[in-house]
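Running this now, will post back.
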Amino acid sequence: MPAIPWNPSFSVAHAELDRQHMEVLTLMNEMEKLLVSAPGNYERKKRLHILERLLHYGHHHSALKMRVLRQWGCDEDSLHRHWRAHKDFDTRVYALYRQLLAGELVLDSSILAAIRHEFFHHILMEDRPLLASLRLRREAGGEESHPRPAPPWPCPASLAPAALDRLTDTAVPRLAA
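Update: finished.
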């Protein structure tokens, strides 16, 4: 599978979100380079490092995305669905990380293809339409055209902090130092 360059059609028209999407595309391309190199412990460590960086990306990206969606007037149901999609992605990446760490998995192109598919599906089929509709409503002066304050946690307000702790602690435990 050849490396995928950033394409303007991937843009969600938000500079920081686009920058973060470019970052994960770079990580996927780095993983691709490792897949064509000879397998070994060094490459395994590099793959683990890339998956760690994807997990780190996921945490920061979902926090920013929820803040932007909330400020742009996204309804709670859409916020919750979007937040859940991000957490599901994080969970799948963490499962890959754990399998690779335990020696149960050798990352191959089919796994990378699955990550790529999920990433691009999310950008093109979820992020772009949602952000475009919110932008149009704001520009038209809709009732949600003024930024709303973000909650102190990066998830929909309908999830209490205790519920968020349970979800994040069980779905994607912190990586050991």
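The longest helix spans residues 41-71. More later if anyone needs it.
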